[in-house]
Amino acid sequence: METTPGTCPVRIALVVLLLLLGATCRLGGAMTREERQRLRNQVIEMFDHAYQNYMDHAYPADELMPLTCRGRVRGLEPSRGDVDDALGKFSLTLIDTLDTLVLLNKPVEFEKAVRKVLRDVRLDNDIVVSVFETNIRVLGGLLGGHSMAVMLKEQGTHMSWYRDELLAMAKDLGLRLLPAFNTSSGLPYPRVNLRHGVRSPEARTGTETDTCTACAGTIILEFAALSRFTGDPVFEEHARRALDFLWEKRQRNSNLVGTTINIHSGEWVRRDSGVGAGIDSYYEYLLKAYILLGDERFLERFNTHYASIMKYISQPPLLLDVHIHKPLLTARTWMDSLLAFFPGLQVLKGDIRPAIETHEMLYQVTKKHNFLPEAFTTDFRVHWAQHPLRPEFAESTYFLYKATGDPYYLEVGRTVLENLNRFARVPCGFAAMKDVRTGSHEDRCMDSFFLAEMFKYLFLLFADPEDLPFDVEDYIFTTEAHLLPLSLSTANTTYTLAVSNHTLGESSLSDTDDSNFDWSCPNTQLLFPDPSFPQSIREPVRSAVDKSCPRPAPPSDGGSAGRPPLRARDFMANNPEHLELLKRMGVSLIHLKDGRVQLVQHATQAFSAVDAEDGLRFMQEMIELSSQQQKEQLPPRAVQIVSHPFFGRVVLTAGPAQFGTDLSKSHRGVQGYVALSEPYSGCSELSNAAVVAGHIALLQRGQCMFAEKARNIQKAGAIGGIVIDDNEGSSSDTAPLFQMAGDGRSTDDITIPLLFLFHKEGNIVLEALREYREVEVLLSDRARDRAAIFKGKALPSYILESRIEIHFRSVVCQCESVCVGLLSSLAQTGGESERTEEEDCSAEDRETVAPPHSTDTDQSSAGTVEEHQSTGHEGDQRQEAEGQGSQEADPVVAEDSSSQSIDSLLADWKEDLEAFQQMEKDEL
């Protein structure tokens, strides 16, 4: 590959080249034991926060909805499609968390939890559930709980009363899942009715023809353990039969399997193959079945698949899907977050180097977006922006640390821990990310795997051996991180010989190459003779993710020493410091007559060779950024409520405007108190300009163009605006992102930001305004952590003046509107009595705060024609429904004053401030 001087195209070849060069970097010092203990204790505190909120606000429901502080009960909440198949009205989160309680040294709570499960949980529910999810979460949870109960009983400290009750429940559940395996192929139906099985009129299932490879191939550990525990071979036999069929149906030339298979014919429905969603745990269970059961047949199959994965799918540090019949052709240009488990599996295999490479790529993407997006492109941009608090990256981090002892992975774990606390923690637990770009939350649920897996792996990462109540080396982790004892390999083996001799068709042990039985364990002494070796692997991966070439050392005359190069995505034409950096890099900024700016670089005018190189890189990035902006829509923005009692914990997804301040170029965003505009539509000169001045104006959608609203509030002195949808019930959960376009003429005169909130999210702001009178929000391109929001700020004077005491407790509302009392100040005037939760949820609270609907003429992201009444949503050209209602008085914010002692408020504020300062120290 030839390159001209000063250029550095970002290609996979660059990674290989830099690997050969062996770039090195000084490693940081090992983390002290005291710091590890602090982080271990923080994991326990975070687990307690999540677990206790589930028990307080959700149990016996399956999962917790952390924003509204209530349980998710299937059928009572809007359907989420296949995701809801994990819910079976069997207290999913509690069962999934049983063995986590023991690992985290909570045997008393574990004993209480087991009694609750035995007393409250019923498995004969008339409900259709996912065979895969029920197996790994519920059956695995019961077996893991049984393993822990037996272990504690043998230690003689707890569970003396236990008589295998959890195992009896597990067998009952296993028998309820068995009807799903009644197919000619042995592959299970994807769903089963817990009471009626499949294919009966009452079952409401059994008509499906397809299932994913992972769904059919992730059964063996739990079913084999159930057979070994109970002595009943039927479960292990069915799981083996399904695995045998999948092995027979692999593509014989590539030795790869597809993503989706017909359970009757065995034909591949989706022929793309990777290590992520749809296939992931199939590979995991082949290797772990060998470890748990000792059957070399599983090792043979895994190694055969693994060789093909490394030949076709692995393109270090990437793992890209390919076609099983044409494995040299990639099937897609993006990766999903579920593949983050694979470095951990490679550790079990003993293949450390590619594990380090892929893990580093995932870590850099995590640092870029705070969390792994649900899917991201090969150039590491967001493809699907959600993040449901998946634990796979933490899992691989633990296994790599376990194998290498490299303290680098403790720092990775610290990053995961701090991001969870800063961006996902809410008063009622931890909330999934709706969009990692904005940091907005969603109330879908706090998935049970978050407690079952995330806290296990993080605790194990920071814990010392003496912190553990048992030796984890005696157990194997299932894909849901449930603990199954390795002693099962010798339990009830009288029938296993017949099972293991099950016919394999064309394939048998006698006609396979001996290399298929190769196995190895990580030898860290040999692997890391030089402590800089792992860094030599990571550095080029970082460069590839960050799209930057290695930067030469700055010249001795100073040059750009101590200053990172200016990146195109950060550039602001009105920033004097940025203009000075352009000058140093030899880049000229030319203002054109039409308002645009043109950049021209003359390398000879740069202050140094390093500056010239930075300038060339800057120009290349700017060209790419300009091209992307022309092709892509604007990303969503965030409205973050930062005032008491929310303090940045509530983040709402907002639609951007194609005019006004570009929040993506503002490091701090726009922060201020909200004020209702009069008229609320904002379609004429405001009558309350004195109130709106210096505030962020709240406007109702309708009657005029968005740009006209922006001009009117800007004239009144507003520093920003939020337009709230008047289509009742609209929500960012269900509606596509809405972008506000201009009015067909120049909008350069609009210099303030304007954001759009759907009705549900807008109502949260209005309800907060009704409740607390003064509500401060931050408009930004993404949520900011509280340390950044309150850094260096004194206690807001409005809190001192109102003397409101903050009660940090959650309120569960049964209101029809969205419950925003996540943190509520419940003191009444005079401080004589507190309002009850019932009063908080009174009929008055359920009234809509917004003024009446009125005839709208807004503009969508792609249109310039005025809108009239319409209900269609047609892509970017969609027109939004505009209702016409009666004219009523503008809303009046209910008055509320409090007069309780400020001492507790100051104490709470000081505690938060100290936590923020500690976060900053940790970062340094």
UniProtKB/TrEMBL annotation:
Residues 540-569, 828-906 are annotated as: Disordered. Its EC number is 3.2.1.-. Residues 1-25 form the signal peptide. Its cofactor is Ca(2+). It is found in: Endoplasmic reticulum. The active site is at E133 (proton donor), D280, E374 (proton donor), E392. It catalyses: N(4)-(alpha-D-Man-(1->2)-alpha-D-Man-(1->2)-alpha-D-Man-(1->3)-[alpha-D-Man-(1->3)-[alpha-D-Man-(1->2)-alpha-D-Man-(1->6)]-alpha-D-Man-(1->6)]-beta-D-Man-(1->4)-beta-D-GlcNAc-(1->4)-beta-D-GlcNAc)-L-asparaginyl-[protein] (N-glucan mannose isomer 8A1,2,3B1,3) + 3 H2O = N(4)-(alpha-D-Man-(1->3)-[alpha-D-Man-(1->3)-[alpha-D-Man-(1->6)]-alpha-D-Man-(1->6)]-beta-D-Man-(1->4)-beta-D-GlcNAc-(1->4)-beta-D-GlcNAc)-L-asparaginyl-[protein] (N-glucan mannose isomer 5A1,2) + 3 beta-D-mannose; N(4)-(alpha-D-Man-(1->2)-alpha-D-Man-(1->2)-alpha-D-Man-(1->3)-[alpha-D-Man-(1->2)-alpha-D-Man-(1->3)-[alpha-D-Man-(1->2)-alpha-D-Man-(1->6)]-alpha-D-Man-(1->6)]-beta-D-Man-(1->4)-beta-D-GlcNAc-(1->4)-beta-D-GlcNAc)-L-asparaginyl-[protein] (N-glucan mannose isomer 9A1,2,3B1,2,3) + 4 H2O = N(4)-(alpha-D-Man-(1->3)-[alpha-D-Man-(1->3)-[alpha-D-Man-(1->6)]-alpha-D-Man-(1->6)]-beta-D-Man-(1->4)-beta-D-GlcNAc-(1->4)-beta-D-GlcNAc)-L-asparaginyl-[protein] (N-glucan mannose isomer 5A1,2) + 4 beta-D-mannose. Its main location: endoplasmic reticulum. GO terms for molecular function: calcium ion binding; mannosyl-oligosaccharide 1,2-alpha-mannosidase activity. Keywords: Calcium, Endoplasmic reticulum, Glycoprotein, Glycosidase, Hydrolase, Metal-binding, Signal, Unfolded protein response. Residues 540-549, 865-881 have a biased composition (Basic and acidic residues). GO terms for biological process: carbohydrate metabolic process; endoplasmic reticulum mannose trimming; endoplasmic reticulum unfolded protein response; ubiquitin-dependent glycoprotein ERAD pathway. Residues 674-763 form the PA domain. InterPro entries: 6hp_glycosidase-like_sf, EDEM1/2/3, EDEM3_PA, Glyco_hydro_47, PA_dom_sf, PA_domain, Seven-hairpin_glycosidases. It comes from the Eukaryota. Ca(2+) binds at T479. One of its GO terms (cellular component) is endoplasmic reticulum. Pathway: Protein modification; protein glycosylation. Belongs to the glycosyl hydrolase 47 family. This is alpha-1,2-Mannosidase. The lineage of its organism: Eukaryota, Metazoa, Chordata, Craniata, Vertebrata.
